[in-house]
Specification:
Order of helices and strands: EEEHEHHEHHEH
Structural class: alpha/beta
Radius of gyration: 16 Å
Largest sheet: 4 strands, mixed
Number of helices: 6
Number of strands: 6
Shape: globular
């Protein structure tokens, strides 16, 4: 198996990059979302964005990108405008495929390979097992490492780690919480809608 990259927090940027951010309500248990974008694309999506979670996410972005993210409204940049419009459409059950540009710089190595494969090959309304995803990236013994890659996903929902489930039928983990994972899978028709 390929060695995982150094911890994301340990990597530092070679030059400062500007970043903007906004908040978006989702109507789901894991909302609101913090959305952050660079000039390359959407770079970070963070669940439960309020208070300390937002402060922590902004501090991490500052450390990784080399400059403090600037707050703006959703229409502040083309990327954030596209991201908020597409996510709103997704949460209404209308959007099946995201087209917002993505900045993959918060991921690397094995994790990035797995996340890119997930983004490219597991469409709306389908799911994949951790083991199957490991095999797709040529690492058949790396199911646990795939789980770690899902946990490191800087772009949840858009890069659909909620679609990765356990081979025995269990949901598996999710950074936004299992209640949110259930709601996203229900939105995509993979689980019945929660009763309450």
């Amino acid at each position: 198996m390929t060695e995982p990259p150094a911890s994301a927090a340990a990597r530092t940027p070679t030059r400062a990059r500007s970043c903007t951010w906004t908040l978006q309500d989702t109507g789901l248990p894991g909302g609101p979302l913090l959305l952050a974008a660079t000039d390359q694309g959407l770079v970070n999506v963070v669940f439960h964005a309020g208070g300390q979670t937002t402060d922590r996410a902004l501090a991490q972005l500052t450390a990784r990108l080399g400059s403090a993210p600037v707050h703006t409204d959703a229409a502040g940049t083309d990327v954030l405008s596209t991201a908020t419009a597409e996510l709103a459409s997704y949460f209404r059950g209308e959007l099946r495929t995201f087209t917002v540009p993505l900045d993959w710089s918060l991921s690397g190595g094995f994790n990035e390979r797995v996340l890119r494969e997930l983004f490219a090959s597991v469409p709306f309304g389908t799911n994949v097992g951790y083991q199957d995803l490991a095999e797709r990236v040529g690492e058949p013994g790396a199911a646990r490492a795939v789980g770690m890659a899902m946990g490191s996903n800087p772009l949840p929902v858009v890069v659909p780690c909620h679609r990765v489930v356990e081979s025995g039928g269990g949901l598996g983990g999710f950074g936004g919480g299992t209640e949110t994972k259930r709601a996203l899978l229900a939105l995509e028709g993979l689980l019945p809608e929660p009763l309450f």
